Amino acid sequence: MNTTDHSSVRHSSLDISPEELRELSARANEIVLEYFSEVSDLPVFPQTFGGDTVEQVGSTLPAEGEPVERLINDCRTIIKKSRHNGHPRFFGYVASPATPVGAFADLIASALNSNVTSWRSGPAATEIERTVVRWLGALIGYDENARGLLTSGGSMANMTALMIAHRAKTGSEASRRGLWRSNAPMIIYASEQVHMSIPKAADILGFGREHVRLIGCDDQFRLNVNLLRKSILADVKAGLKPFCIVGSAGTTNTGAVDPLSEIADLAKEFALWFHVDGAYGAPAALDETKTPLFAGLEGADSVSLDPHKWLYAPLDCGCLLLRDEARARVAFGDEEADYIKVLEEDADESFAFWNYGPELSRRFRALKIWLMLRYYGVRRIAAAITEDNALAAYLAELVEQAEDFELLSRPQLSICCFRYVPQALRLRSDGMPQDNDAIKAELNKLNEKIMYAIQRGGRAYLSSATIHDKFALRACITNFRTTRADIEQTLEIIREAAEAM
């Protein structure tokens, strides 16, 4: 009888030796350490053009493998050609830099490669994510026993919340019976300053953008509750079906926080779902000077927030918090396919994230938040957020003191909107109604050119907002590396760009 020895280890074409693995690890670690040590000295935006990166690293699909040294050098090129939100003068968008702890946590999570669909698929990862969700609810003063799930970002969290809100008001049979669009359209209410993800989600879900009522704001860019009440009453009288109010806990334009407590009372009065979009601003509840702004957050049925926006976690990492997880199951719970059917009887072991959101395949997003919160502790993270808010206030103070700048929106959180006003235009507007059309158009065009010059100049990065038809330079400070000197230098960079024109 012939016998053949079969090794218990498969020899694969993808195997690499322990020596090669150590080299890969060392070189990758080296480039990450380089980046963290040099990011403050790199140009915020590189000197580059469309197609430049691929031209340098190549675009030919290789038939054979390439040496690690070449690959790492190409990664250095990619870093060189990237925009760096970790730079202390990156103020363009709501995107905090990744902490080293979060970056290394992502490496561990990627190596483990858990598919966090359910406890059975990823038992440890599922338990860590459920813990992190609860921690985030406690962190922002929402609910110490919050339920929910992590998402790719605020847009997905907001869309999931609207889906849950709709089913909570119509029941689980709505889509099965073709009642998604009833004879009486379902209406959503939000501030005219609401994030674009809300109308977009309404469109994707089939409600239609036309059924999102954008309500006017007060002089602080907060939703006007009196106008909201009038709109709800008018829609009810017209035979429509209001079902959800979306409040903003930090708008992306100005950082405004809607009067959440008043909205919560109104939602309760009309039996409407109350969702708070706190993707950017909710973590600011950790700043004791800002905590009063978030009164009423605890009355929301759901809240979205993005740890990658203002908790200094790497992308991607959003979160949807829920007060009542049973309502999510009405929206997403369904008969399961045989291959994912859960047979466990224990409540924890039968838990599945697919009952609370649209995704099946889900990466282990929670580890980076879990490690960061444990490594730094809440006090240090709160201090960083508090300092970001203080720097925005400092920028506003400098703008008000300057003769060549005008403050267009006083910061409520860490966003400051202002514009450059040269002396010639300032003198021309003396004694006239503020910004006649000709001067407004000239100032808008000038500040638009300034913003573009600064973005491509590489020394700082601002974005824009429209404030009462005025083109504003928008600085959003969510960066633990930013200092007062960076704020002062940014204003000088703006002046230099304006003078160069």
What is the strand and helix layout of this fold?
Layout: H1 18-38, H2 52-57, H3 68-80, H4 100-112, H5 123-139, E1 147-151, H6 154-170, E2 186-191, H7 197-205, E3 212-215, H8 225-237, E4 241-248, H9 260-269, E5 273-277, E6 302-305, H10 307-310, E7 318-322, H11 325-332, H12 366-401, E8 405-409, E9 415-420, H13 423-428, H14 437-457, E10 463-467, E11 470-476, H15 484-500
Parallel strand pairs: 2-3, 2-4, 4-5, 5-6
Antiparallel strand pairs: 1-7, 6-7, 8-9, 9-11, 10-11
Helix pairs in contact: 1-3, 4-12, 5-12, 6-7, 6-11, 12-15, 14-15
Q: Overview of this structure, please?
A:
The longest helix is centred in the last third of the chain and has 36 residues, at 366-401. With 501 residues, this protein is an alpha/beta fold. β4 (241-248), α9 (260-269) and β5 form a beta-alpha-beta unit. 42% of the residues are buried. The chain is globular, with a radius of gyration of 25 Å. α1 (18-38) runs parallel beside α3 and α14 packs across α15. The strands form two sheets. Strands 1-7-6-5-4-2-3 form a seven-stranded mixed beta sheet, with helices on both faces. The model has no long low-confidence stretch (mean pLDDT 92). Helix content is 42%, strand content 12%.
